[in-house]
Structure formats: C-alpha cells, structure tokens
Amino acid sequence: MTLLSVGIDVSKETLHVAYGSTPEEMTFLGAFANKSDSFQTLAEAVESKAQQLGCDQILLVMEPTGGYEQRLACFAHQRGWLVSLPNPHQVRQWAEGQGIRAKTDRQDGLLLGQYGLQGPVLLWQPLAEHVALLSDLLDRRQDLEHMRQQERNRAEALQGQGRYYGVAKSSIENTLARLETSLQEIEQAITEHVKQHPDLTQQRKLLRQVPGVGEKNVLPLLVLCARWSSLTHGQGTAKGLTSYAGLDPQPYDSGRTVHKRARISRKGNPTLRHLLFMGALGGIRSPNSALRHFYNRLLAAGKPKMVALVAASRKILLWAWAVFRNQSPFDPQRAQARQITYSI
Questions:
Q1: What is the pLDDT at residue 265?
Q2: What are the pLDDT digits (tens) for 133-149?
Q3: Given 3.30.420.40, 3.50.50.60, 1.10.260.40, 1.10.1760.20, which CATH number is that of 3-115?
Q4: Beta 82-84 vs 57-62: how paired, if at all?
Q5: Total-model pTM
C-alpha cells in the first residue's frame, strides 16, 4: 500500500498543508482557513494529489494545539483517512536528529509530513461520544477551578496590602460567587452524565477499588484509560501508558563520568500527574493497602521518599489500566504478591 503523508501545521485561523509519498518529495500544498467550510476544499485537493501519485491511503499528521486540530481530525477520520496526533516534543527531537532547525508554519507542515513517513506512528481515533462529553465537562471544571483560585489569590494579595475594599472587593466577590454557581452546575452535570451511562458507572465503580483512586481523580483516570484504549485499539501496554502520561523514568548516564539524577519525562498531562501524586500521598496512609506495602518495600530497598512516591503514582496508573482493560475488580492480594523493581 502506497501512503500519502499530509503534514499540517495548525493554528486557530490557518492550516499550512504539505504532502508527499516520500520525505524527499514532500511539497507545500498551501494555506487553508481552519474552518469547517474549508475542509472539503482541502480534502479534494489532497485526494487529487493522492490519485496523481497513485497512493492508496492518506495519513494526516498534526500536532495537538489546544483543540484547534480536533474538528479537522474528526472530519478526516470520517472521510477514511488515517490520523496521527504525535507529541510535539517527540517530533521536535526527531527533527533535531535529522538536522532540521528552521521553524516556520510552512516548514512545520513539511516536517510533520516527513515525520509521518519515518516509521509506524500512533494512530488517533475519536473517543466515544459520551466519553468525549465527560472529558469536556472535566476540562471545564478544571478551568473554573483555576479561575476561582486566581480570584482567591487576588483577594489575598489585596488583603495583604490593606486595599481589599470598594469596587475591587465587590468585583472579586461577585466573580467568586458566579464561579461557585458554575462549578456546582458542572458538578451536577458530571454526576448526571455518569448516571445516564451504565458503562461509565461500572468503570468508575471498578476504578474506585484501586488504592489511591478517590473522587478527585477517578473520572480523569477513567477518561485517560479510555483515550489510551482508543489510541492503541485496546492493545496498549502498561509501559506505553506510563510514557503517555509522562511518568516514565529518564535515566541520564554516559560513559564513566556523566551520571545525572534520573527524572520522569513529564510529557503527558501535568494535571493528571498531580492528581496521581496526591492520590499516592493519600493511598500510602491507608493501613494494609497494597499501595502502602509497595511504598514501604521501596523505602526498605533504599529508595528516597520522593522517588517512592513517584513510583507509587505510576503504580496507581498501571493498576487502574489493568482494571479498566480487563473490566475486573482490583485484586489486592495479587497486587501485593508481585515483586517489581523500579529504577527511577
């Protein structure tokens, strides 16, 4: 099968498109408006090039850009194209390895097209509609919580300066009141949405059995597992999920003299990693929990507390994935029986 790779640099307003069946023949096609009305014109132009070059399949490669790529990704998937949304950090590392330093919108489109031809890429699939809606609700809750914290910080700063009065005070308090109301509405919508879908209710119930998984992180974990399952067609590995979440260890050793402290890659969602870390803090305090035994075993092996906590965060993620993938209850005895060495 001959593949036509289409690289697109995405911005809020514009799509810079390149195409080619080999890296050497990658060609800039043009700039298109990032609007639904322009997608048909773009598709016809790309499919015409595919026909001219005798390509049987089209692969669309775009970097995630705050959601601006989602409409086109869904459109292309419905049209039967393959779609890949690679991690920008990985693409940039690959480009540097190829000696590519320039960075313009046009060059990025060409680069993404070439990246699509360098080897197997992770293919994107849209989430099930009800899971995607849950993800949107969780994102909105996070946005509102962030805005509420910003307003609280402003109030605290003004109080510390002795200027928390007048219009500024009333504006902050009115904003906080509106945010609290909006948060209550979102929480209610999330609760009702989960109740309306038995599969979400069951998955949530199973995940809550995992040590370190509570009300704050259970639904974000559910969405992450669903997204990983969708990305990997249900065949994703625990190691791949760890990397996807940015909890994979990154050792730095070279020769006899260069030995730096290993760290996690932090390539994934920082909010989710924070939720997992906080879950680990709570989970290790629970008497006789599998997570507490795991944490204590690492400490007994000489691991620093922070290293053990990060490993516990990763363990929560892997246990959650096993429960989600198998749709089976968490087995604490089996979890405690497994002896795994972590090098972080």
A1: 67
A2: 999 999 999 999 999 99
A3: 3.30.420.40
A4: parallel
A5: 0.77
